[in-house]
Amino acid sequence: MTNKSHEADVAFIKALAELLRENDLTELQVKRAYAEDDSLNVRVSRATQQMIAAPVQVAAAPAVAAAPAAPAPASVNDDPSNHPGAVTSPMVGTIYMQAEPGTPAFVSVGAQVNEGDTLLIVEAMKTMNHIPAPRSGKVTRIMVEDGSTVEFGAPLVIIE
Question: For the chain, how are helix, strand and coil distributed in percent, rounded to 5?
Fold first, then answer.
């Protein structure tokens, strides 16, 4: 029976890895309870090329921007998540810039927001999570696009 249980666990873990790959997730954690004192805890994770490629794309932008003049934006563009006004994603999910299709976006570049205003929505597991502005200020950059996926901790918006 132990061998049969082991084979089922291996098949379960392989299915989780496939689910991770098919849905372009970076991490998945599941607890499977068999009996009161018997359970299986599985955490499957992988590094994504999105996470690796993002700094390369951002680093390339300052080289082009440096030709016109300003070295100051290059330091801000190196890693947007380190910007003091960066609002980061609290979860993995899909970005929605408006409440429903056809309605205006919650924010745009240059918009003035107050603390608590909805900046965008992150959908995770069919739940719409409104992301509030942590402080009042002006939206200077929007780092994500409507319908794109986002990782935990990824910069979404910069408020100055």
Answer: 30, 30, 40
pLDDT at 127 over 70: yes
Q: What is the dihedral of CA 144, 148, 152, 156, to 10 degrees?
A: 10
Q: Enter the pTM of the model.
A: 0.51
pLDDT mean over 2-7:
64
Segment holding 72, helix H or strand E: helix 72-77
For residues 100 and 93, give the distance between their C-alpha atoms in angstroms, rounded to a whole number. 16
End-to-end CA distance of the chain: 61
Can you name the CATH fold of 84-159? OB fold (Dihydrolipoamide Acetyltransferase, E2P) (2.40.50)
- For 54-75, what is each residue's pLDDT tens digit? 343 444 444 444 444 444 444 4
